[in-house]
Write a structure and sequence with these properties.
heterodimer; A: 264 residues; alpha/beta; Rossmann fold; 2 domains; 6-stranded mixed sheet; 4-stranded antiparallel sheet; 10 helices; 10 strands; globular; B: 671 residues; GMP Synthetase, Chain A, domain 3; 5-stranded parallel sheet; 22 helices; 28 strands
């Protein structure tokens, strides 16, 4: 039952990225590739620069040095909205949904980029606007079906338990029909069952839609199970990059995680 | 089909049992419906947030395509088709498709673990399985090696199954595609197969989970199911514009009759919910006119209402309380057509606008004409709550072996403590030992490959043994009191039904569990487990403080409260001619909650009477002495798995028994 993976060309290439906030170096000379259709896990101890790296990729932070090449186009600075328009979607470490809106509405916001008719037409809700709304609603419904959140379709997300909010957030990111999906700790704070569900959804997204996924995760069991490749950051540097088994055996990684006795 | 002859000693009944009716199988009924009401909706499924529907003509087409596809795969007369999944249109079509070819569908409980599925699929000799989705396919695949007869798995939802290439997997729609091609090469094949089927053929095998041993496969014929479905339709006046929500397991006989057979016979539309979690929302959207639920669900709905009312504003709470107290007084009477004063009627109709109507609408019960509860006893408070709102909820009684029902409560003769009168064609008899015996056109053909069990249930004298103990009252209503094997007798021979007593006690909110003892003793005694929450709440409201469960359970006021409940039960019992002698004389409140971890309850929260009797032997001895206190040390398992001992001194209370009215003669069993 092993999926016949079809990992393709390099989708995104980060070259010698360095990022600092004032005197603090968050990332130092990091080069990283993300290939089409793969699941890449970025791991590392707290403060290693994992979230900074995601923020650089989707244009939220602008690195002082280095370039990002995405789908063949190299650029120094990419703005988040440009990233979104080009098919990069993400979820956040702390859930960032519209708490007062329903699950369905939250997912529909993920479709905004794809809506053609202007806001006035939509207010009139007639003709093309109506047709378009129906198309987007259908897409949102497919995501609701995919993530098995039918029962909370009309529930304001503020009332939902944390695990479900995470799932809704994933749904909103999926609504953009992204090519590259960045997940920042999708399983943080979940219980075992919720984690298993989330793993299944991540694998299914990758499998059904062929979406490339880069995720940050602390649960090593999860990382080793679902990723095709693992990149390890420590103190803003990349110390390892490779298939899960190779990374697991890497001495630098073991030292970074277990700590190394200095001067011993 | 020759199943009934070869596998069991039971002779098939004559073929003309459904009169000279040509509509004696479901495939024939389907064709008839496609002709008579082809454009009317037959089945709906909520998918992608919308109710998608199929007309009878479409269902006939889909079913035929699938049946032909099965034929193309090599499925033949007499073969078994496993059907696994939630209520889905395609799975219902698969059932009829198998029947078209003279095959037998075998629905399997969708929440069964792989090992349980293995037993059923193996025992039923299933050749092909239709599974809803990846979850079910995975379960079947995990036991496939031990199922040599299983040749193919057909799945409905392709999600996650794309890479399962080495297994014998086919998609439902691909099978239909094959069927369309097969039809071109074999014109008239399906029509001939359908015409070969007859009412005496086995229509379906339904596996029942026995309390002991492995599940048994109940073979029901088309005649069984169609006759019973029709008598239900006539009894309740079901029509083609009725609406039903199919949400109970497809492997359960009730779903097969209420959501499948009756739909085929009466032509009404069946709707499948979006998922298990959305049933309540879908119920509300759909507003069924005909609805079935076990007591557990009725109770959950009521609890939800009560919890939400607690959170409502003061005015709403007041309105709810006042109108509900009126409804409790007269709502049931209005439903039963009894005389009610004009003033009450007027206020009730105001209540209908302000409270009852909106409440029913919120629950999805606005259009209900007939609602059933069955399976176990329902609390009178729960039962009466729905009736007082004007919801015509009734009890019925039956089992898989008789094609779901023997008795239904007729309109205007509905009471919480009976299960109704026998439906047309059913004969009832109470055996010497209190067991309910029956004859019915719905009586099953036999247990599949289990002639011994068949012979134990279907006796040579023609009476079928239900395994339940009960009695008929003067109005010919059947009362079920307990499982026949649990019914015992006192020292003097008085009949004693432990579950009957325990249920009566458990209907009080303060009592969570009750365990009654008596067999061979001079009088009945009970252990009570209080409900920590309800009793704790009561204590709080009465300014009684307590340190924990054990202390709460030992307080005199709590004992007084429980004594009140016990004495009420005794007064009720005094009115029951058969059980008046089994009133409760003494009781005690246990110092710990009965727990499955300690082996006192099963995982489904059923009391393990014998185990409890052994474990608390000193307490039982004390109950049958004149002592007022008893000491006990019990080993308990804590949540974290550690074991410890609880020592306690329990009080024992005498309960006042009610005098038995002169007209009521206690039933003595000849010993």
């Amino acid at each position: 039952m092993t999926p016949a993976k079809r990992i393709g060309e390099v989708l995104l290439h980060a070259d010698d990225i360095s990022l600092s906030f004032g005197g603090v170096r968050a990332l130092t000379d990091i080069s990283l590739e993300i290939r089409e259709h793969e699941i890449l896990a970025i791991i590392g101890p707290n403060g290693a620069g994992k979230t900074s790296m995601l923020n650089v990729i989707n244009g939220f932070y602008h690195p002082q040095e280095g370039t990002i090449t995405y789908k063949g186009a190299t650029r120094r600075r990419m703005r988040p909205h440009q990233a979104a328009e080009q098919g990069i979607a993400r979820t956040f470490q702390n859930v960032a949904l519209f708490r007062g809106m329903t699950t369905l509405d939250n997912i529909m916001t993920g479709r905004l980029l794809r809506m053609r008719s202007n806001f006035l037409w939509q207010a009139v809700y007639y003709g093309t606007a109506l047709k378009e709304e129906l198309e987007h609603r259908e897409h949102a419904e497919r995501i609701i079906d995919f993530l098995e959140i039918e029962a909370i379709r009309k529930t304001p997300v503020g009332q939902l338990p944390y695990g479900l909010q995470k799932r809704v957030e994933l749904g909103r990111a999926l609504a953009m029909e992204p090519e590259l999906l960045l997940l920042d700790e999708p399983m943080a704070g979940m219980n075992v069952e919720e984690k298993e569900d989330m793993c299944r959804f991540i694998l299914d997204v990758n499998d059904e839609f062929g979406t490339t996924i880069a995720l940050i995760e602390h649960d090593m069991g999860v990382v080793m199970d679902i990723s095709d490749r693992v990149a390890v950051l420590d103190y803003g540097r990349k110390i390892a990059d490779g298939p899960p088994d190779a990374v697991r055996a890497n001495q630098d990684v073991i030292d970074a995680y277990l700590g190394v006795a200095h001067g011993a | 089909m020759a199943l009934a002859e070869t596998e069991t000693a039971i002779k098939p009944r004559p073929r003309a049992a459904v009169g000279q009716d040509v509509r004696d199988t479901f495939p024939k009924l389907l064709l008839e419906n496609a002709r008579v009401r082809g454009q009317r909706p037959a089945i709906r499924e909520k998918d992608y947030g919308i109710w998608q529907s199929w007309s009878w003509a479409e269902v006939a087409r889909e079913t035929q395509d699938f049946a032909l596809g099965l034929a193309a795969l090599g499925f033949k007369r007499g073969d078994k088709l496993g059907v696994i999944g939630d209520n889905r249109p395609r799975l219902y079509w698969a059932i009829t498709a198998a029947q078209c070819l003279g095959g037998v569908p075998v629905p399997v409980y969708q929440d069964a673990v792989a090992a349980e599925m293995e037993y059923v699929l193996d025992h039923a000799e299933v050749r092909f399985v239709v599974a809803e989705n990846q979850e079910q396919v995975d379960k079947v695949l995990s036991v496939r090696e031990r199922l040599p007869r299983l040749e193919g798995i057909i799945y409905c939802d392709p999600r996650g199954l794309r890479h399962y290439d080495q297994a014998p997997l086919t998609r439902f729609t691909d099978v239909q595609e094959k069927g369309r091609a097969f039809a071109k090469d074999h014109p008239g094949y399906l029509e001939a197969e359908i015409a070969q089927g007859g009412g005496a053929d086995v229509a379906i095998i339904l596996y029942t989970s026995g309390t002991t041993g492995q599940p048994k496969g109940v073979m029901l014929t088309f005649d069984n199911i169609i006759l019973m479905a029709r008598s239900g339709i006539e009894f309740e006046g079901l029509r083609q514009d009725d609406e039903v929500l199919a949400y109970l397991p497809m492997a359960w006989v009730g779903d097969n009759v209420f959501s499948f057979a009756q739909s085929y016979c009466a032509g009404f539309c069946v709707s499948c919910p979006e998922s298990g979690a959305t049933v309540m929302t879908d119920l509300r959207e759909l507003g069924p006119t005909y609805f079935f639920a076990p007591p557990r669900i009725w109770e959950n709905i009521l609890t939800q209402v009560m919890i939400r009312m607690e959170d409502a504003g003061a005015l709403k709470r007041w309105l709810f309380r006042s109108f509900m107290s009126l409804a409790r007084r007269i709502g049931g009477k209005i439903l039963d057509g009894e005389p009610v004063s004009i003033r009450d009627r007027l206020i009730y109709s105001i209540g209908r606008v302000l409270i009852y109507g909106p409440l029913k609408n919120t629950l999805g019960f606005s259009r209900i004409r007939i609602a059933y509860t069955a399976g176990e006893a329902i609390g009178p408070d729960i039962f009466n709550f729905y009736r007082s709102l004007g919801i015509n909820i009734k009890q019925l009684y039956g089992m898989t072996e008789c094609s779901v029902f023997l008795c239904i409560q007729p309109d205007r003769e509905v009471r919480a403590d009976t299960v109704g009168t026998p439906v047309a064609g059913v004969e009832l008899k109470i055996a010497e030992d209190g067991e309910v015996l029956y004859k019915s056109p719905g009586v099953f053909a036999g247990y599949f490959k289990n002639p011994q069990a068949t012979a134990e249930t279907k006796r040579p004298d023609g009476w079928v043994h239900s395994g339940d103990a009960g009695f008929l009252d003067d109005a010919h209503h059947l009362h079920i009191i307990d499982r026949a094997k649990d019914v015992g007798k006192l020292e003097n021979g008085t009949l004693f039904a432990p579950k009957f007593l325990e249920n009566k006690l458990k209907f009080f909110p303060y009592i969570r569990e009750a365990v009654a003892f008596a067999p061979g003793r001079p009088y009945v005694t009970v252990f009570i487990n209080i409900d920590a929450e309800a009793a704790g709440d009561w204590a709080e409201r009465h300014g009684i403080t307590y340190g924990g469960y054990q202390e709460l359970a030992s307080l005199d006021p709590v004992y007084d409260l429980v004594a009140g409940c016990v004495e009420q039960v005794n007064r009720d019992l005094a009115q029951e001619p058969h059980l008046a002698g089994s009133q409760i004389h003494r009781f005690l409140i246990l110092h710990k909650e009965l727990d499955a971890d300690d082996g006192e309850l099963t995982r489904t929260r059923k009391v393990r009477r014998r185990f409890i009797g052994e474990r608390f032997r000193p307490l039982i001895d004390a109950l049958y002495s004149s002592r007022e206190r008893a000491e006990i040390a019990t080993e308990v398992t804590f949540e974290d798995g550690r074991k410890g001992t609880i020592k306690a001194e329990l009080k024992i209370r005498d309960a006042a028994t009610a005098p038995i009215p002169a007209t009521v003669e206690p039933l003595r069993r000849a010993s």
